Structures are given as structure tokens and as C-alpha cells.
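Structure in, sequence out. Go:
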């Protein structure tokens, strides 16, 4: 769709959405999965479905899951399907790094794609907090930069973090494949959704 047609059809908001949604997300599903076998690509996964409205903060006890939003039965099943999706595409193991929140750790573990390590860089950040968003982006890029190019890695984090890192909004359990370009900026290559 051309920009002119987008503006005519959807107005200014439509133009903003068209510009913010990279065309590379339109890759066919198999092509998106194929990117994971190319060096230098990293998967950002928004944790699986975790309903609730608990007030959470980065100074809480992360080991106490009772004070956090947690995966529901659908979220647990979704995480298992994500792992099955990787195995279906020939990826049985990868490096898993999750935020310290229980829902992110549980999502990573339920994929059964390997041991899970925690990293506070991936903890929840609110997009409205520009200072936190920019700090999270800088730290996340440093984390991605340290991943060896031949080590397929999945970072399990939160929607605000993914928006900060890849300028992409994901639903629970959705993924975006990214890489760093020559300037060190994050490029969002493709979205992956496991049904």
C-alpha cells in the first residue's frame, strides 16, 4: 500500500502505523524461521499470556511469584507450543535469557529449549518512561552485542522492552527476529507467531 493511499484510507493514524510497521515483517513464515539459522540473529519473545493487574516494580522480591502476574493455563500451553514450533523447524536447543519476572522465566522454561538464565536488563520497562526506555534500550543493545553470532539466543521479556529495542509491539507469546546492523542499531527482520 502506498503512503498516499494509506493516508487516504486510514488518515494520519494509518500513516503513523504504516511507517512504524517495517515491511520486513511481511516475510513468509518459513523465511522468518530460516533467519534463525543465519548468524547474528536474535529472537525477542514477549512472555506468554499472564492476566492480572498486580502492581509490580523492579525493587520487589522476584522469587515471590505470588505478588506478580503469572502465566495462566493458556499461557503455559502457549509457551509449550512455542518450543514445539522451534523443534518443528529444526531448532532443538538455544540460549535462553529471561527477565527476572516469574512469567518470563516460566515462559522460557516451558519451551524446553534449554537452560534459562536471568538478566535484569530484560526486566519490565514502561514505554511512557522515556528515561527508563532509553536506558533499557542501551543496556539491551549491549546484551545483544555480547551474544556470539553463531549462538542462537532468545531473550524473553516484556512488551515495553520489545517496543524500546525493536520498535515493534507484540502480543503475548509473539516473537520478533532482530539483528544489529553495521552501525549497531537494532533491525527488526520478521515477526513469528506460533499458532
Amino acid at each position: 500500500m502506498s503512503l498516499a493511499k494509506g493516508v487516504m484510507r486510514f488518515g494520519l493514524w494509518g500513516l503513523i502505523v504504516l511507517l512504524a510497521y517495517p515491511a520486513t515483517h511481511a516475510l513468509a513464515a518459513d523465511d522468518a524461521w530460516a533467519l534463525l539459522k543465519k548468524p547474528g540473529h536474535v529472537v525477542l519473545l514477549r512472555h506468554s499470556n499472564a492476566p492480572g493487574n498486580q502492581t509490580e516494580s523492579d525493587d520487589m522480591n522476584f522469587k515471590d511469584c505470588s505478588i506478580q502476574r503469572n502465566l495462566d493455563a493458556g499461557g503455559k500451553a502457549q509457551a509449550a507450543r512455542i518450543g514445539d514450533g522451534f523443534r518443528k523447524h529444526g531448532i532443538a536447543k538455544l540460549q535462553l535469557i529471561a527477565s527476572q519476572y516469574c512469567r518470563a522465566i516460566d515462559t522460557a522454561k516451558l519451551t524446553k529449549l534449554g537452560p534459562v538464565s536471568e538478566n535484569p536488563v530484560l526486566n519490565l520497562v514502561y514505554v511512557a518512561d522515556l528515561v527508563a526506555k532509553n536506558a533499557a534500550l542501551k543496556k539491551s543493545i549491549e546484551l545483544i552485542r555480547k551474544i556470539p553470532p553463531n549462538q542462537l539466543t532468545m531473550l524473553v521479556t516484556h512488551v515495553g522492552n520489545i517496543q524500546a529495542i525493536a520498535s515493534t509491539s507484540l502480543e503475548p507469546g509473539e516473537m520478533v527476529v532482530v539483528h544489529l546492523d553495521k552501525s549497531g542499531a537494532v533491525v527488526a527482520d520478521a515477526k513469528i507467531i506460533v499458532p
